[in-house]
Amino acid sequence: MSQILKTFEDLKASDKKGFIPFVTAGDPDRETSLEIALALARNGADIIELGVPFSDPLADGPTIQASSQRALENGIAVADIIKMVRQIRHSSRVPVVLFSYLNPILRYGVEKLAFEAAEAGAGGVLITDAVDEEAAEIGVVLGNHGLDLISLIAPTTSDDRLKRIAQNARGFLYAVSRAGVTGARDQNSETAEMLVARARQYTDTPIAVGFGISTREQIDEVWRYADAAVVGSAIVKVIENSIGSGNPAANVEAFVRGLLPKVAKRASEI
Amino acid sequence: MSGHEPNERGYWGEYGGRFVPETLVAPLDELTEAYFAYRDDSAFRSEFESLLKDFVGRPTPLYFAERLTENLGGARIYLKREDLNHTGAHKINNCVGQILLARRMGKSRIIAETGAGQHGVATATVCARFGLECVIYMGTEDMRRQELNVFRMRLLGAEVRGVDSGSRTLKDAINEALRDWVTNVESSYYLLGSALGPHPYPLMVRDFQSIIGKEAREQILEKEGRLPDVLIACVGGGSNSIGLFHEFMEDDVRMVGVEAGGFGNNLGEHAARFMNDASVGVLQGTKSYLLQDANGQIASTHSVSAGLDYATIGPEHAFLHDSGRVEYISASDDDALEAFHLVSEIEGIIPALESAHAIAHVLKVAPEMPRNSIIVVNLSGRGDKDVNTVAEVQPRGDKK
């Protein structure tokens, strides 16, 4: 069983839902983003999505665009990010999913990436702009190295397609909550719950909901109908706001504790 | 022509496809279905042709450039006068086709990107003609370079949204247009302006632009009684060139695509995707040749012409490059400016800086060709929009 599936099995066994935070590798710099990832691992992250920055992040809103830009200005490359995975896994058992656009992966080499990422302890890879048939070959290569290729579904995904994607899903299914780019929103979208219900018809694979989730209330809402909630831009915004003034890792830790009061309480009792 | 059709997933050989966020798969499916439903529909075709004739002003002339021919002393040079189209470039051909499709699909809001502004102006024009809301994304660097076109778009009732990310040029405008589309997917139609992006755009745009070559082929047969020896066109995304080339694919005619050579051979100094560091990757929905660094980050590009200043090239061109059917070369900023001035001065035609790249290649090869040989070059647009740029970088005119 894959790391990721094992994580969801454990959550289920203790009747809990998952929290999946996202950070861009290299934002605001390599050392700090590693500290942030480790802080997330200590504070309730069940899986960490580690963003591979890309120059042209067309699925991302302004917050993650700016974050990618900062990381690239620091010269972070795929090899550094794999090293970061190794460092995270050295001090934590939390699975890491690389969250990337396709081009940096193609340039690095799919086979090379699969081998090295698996060796570093990564759990999976999600490729924003390679969906379904375009990702099939890559999925096989990753699978050969024990990595899950995480598939995305969206409210616009047709039933036929949803069925095919859901039935072939590895690790977990990432349900995009609404049409649009990444970025915090005040309201949860009702379309997300409908989408999860549609996917449930076809698969038992765990389903995580992402895009626009930034508050404790939104997480609770997603946990009511899905297996995990992904929080990305809201965390990245905390990092952005900490630059030059505070300690980004400490600020992210405080923010996440606010999102997950039960986890924070448990942590303080230990 | 079946050998020039992509497969059902939009691939010419290994190039093309559909690399987009999941949310856009359904609207692309919807678009593909609509396009194939109307592609050969007689009512659609006749409305398209009627608008091209009476609104756009087609057919455009195939003009014998007598003084340019004499000046170069070699091949007979014909200019396909796409600059005489309504709005001043070939871009309108595609916009007319796509707006008719958008209307049939029931879309009320049109979004588009623009580089030089010609596609933006053409889109704003067809939106005004059909009463549809129009939002144009344009890099702020291009807005500076092409101020006149920004004003034209606004006059036509379009909203022009400046894009400040990346190099603030065409690539960044496409990113932002795609972000808009993914957000407003129900109401909006993305009217992409070149033969690139995800399937079915490269095919659809080529089809709508292939009127250029259809006319040129008939016209040259009428004027010369034979086919030309060489076709020459500039290549940014690749729509004016594929539009000229497509109809001649089965003929014994050489074809040359001219990329922007900028001011140097290093990454960042040009927009020649097939030059030196040529590599294949995925950008903005399609797999093709592109300019990227060692880490797979998209490189910045440079060209004096905003319309050629783009990091990747349409997938069919990548295929035609590998198959050898089309030759691709580049012309530098300086060569293009030289051609710009020459054609202005001896033919009385001010070409767009994009088209001036194609003419720059004519200046190189025509003198070496026999006097009875024939070159057809696509004069894809007029240069009014470029006079400020030329005045900045290479003023001339007081010299005589």
What does this structure look like?
The complex is a heterodimer of chains A (270) and B (400). With 270 residues, chain A is α/β, with parallel strands linked by helices. Chain A has helices at 3-13, 30-42, 62-73, 78-91, 102-108, 110-120, 136-144, 159-167, 190-200, 216-225, 233-242, 248-259, 261-269, and strands spanning 18-24, 48-51, 96-100, 124-127, 148-153, 173-176, 207-210, 228-231. Chain A is globular. Chain B has 400 residues and is α/β, with parallel strands linked by helices. Chain B contains 15 helices and 14 strands. In chain B, the strands form three sheets. A six-stranded mixed beta sheet of chain B has the order 3-4-14-9-10-13, sandwiched between helices. In chain B, strand 5, helix 5 and strand 6 form a beta-alpha-beta unit. The termini of chain B are far apart. Chains A and B meet through helix 3 and helix 5 of A and strand 2, helix 1, helix 8 and strand 11 of B.
Radius of gyration of chain A: 17 Å
Largest sheet of chain A: 8 strands, parallel, barrel
Intertermini distance of chain A:
30 Å
Radius of gyration of chain B: 19 Å
Describe the oligomeric state of these chains in a short phrase. Answer: heterodimer
Q: Return the string of H and E elements of chain A.
A: HEHEHHEHHEHEHEHEHEHHH
Instruction: State the secondary-structure class of chain B.
Output: alpha/beta
Q: Give a count of the beta strands of chain A, DSSP E runs of length 2 or more.
A: 8
Strand order of the largest sheet of chain A: 1-2-3-4-5-6-7-8
Helix content of chain B: 40-55%
Shape field of chain B: globular
Task: For the structure shown, list the relevant keywords.
heterodimer, A: 270 residues, alpha/beta, TIM Barrel, eight-stranded parallel β-barrel, B: 400 residues, 14 strands, 18% strand
List the helices and strands and how they pair.
The complex is a heterodimer of chains A (270) and B (400).
Chain A: H1 3-13, E1 18-24, H2 30-42, E2 48-51, H3 62-73, H4 78-91, E3 96-100, H5 102-108, H6 110-120, E4 124-127, H7 136-144, E5 148-153, H8 159-167, E6 173-176, H9 190-200, E7 207-210, H10 216-225, E8 228-231, H11 233-242, H12 248-259, H13 261-269
Parallel strand pairs in A: 1-2, 1-8, 2-3, 3-4, 4-5, 5-6, 6-7, 7-8
Chain B: E1 11-12, E2 15-19, H1 25-38, H2 42-56, E3 62-64, H3 66-72, E4 76-81, H4 91-104, E5 109-114, H5 118-130, E6 133-139, H6 140-145, H7 147-155, E7 159-163, H8 170-183, E8 188-190, H9 201-209, H10 211-224, E9 230-234, H11 239-245, E10 254-262, E11 279-283, E12 285-290, H12 315-323, E13 327-332, H13 333-347, H14 353-365, E14 374-379, H15 387-393
Parallel strand pairs in B: 4-14, 5-6, 5-8, 6-7, 9-10, 9-14, 10-13
Antiparallel strand pairs in B: 1-2, 2-12, 3-4, 11-12
Helix pairs in contact in B: 2-4, 4-5, 4-9, 5-7, 9-11, 10-11, 13-14
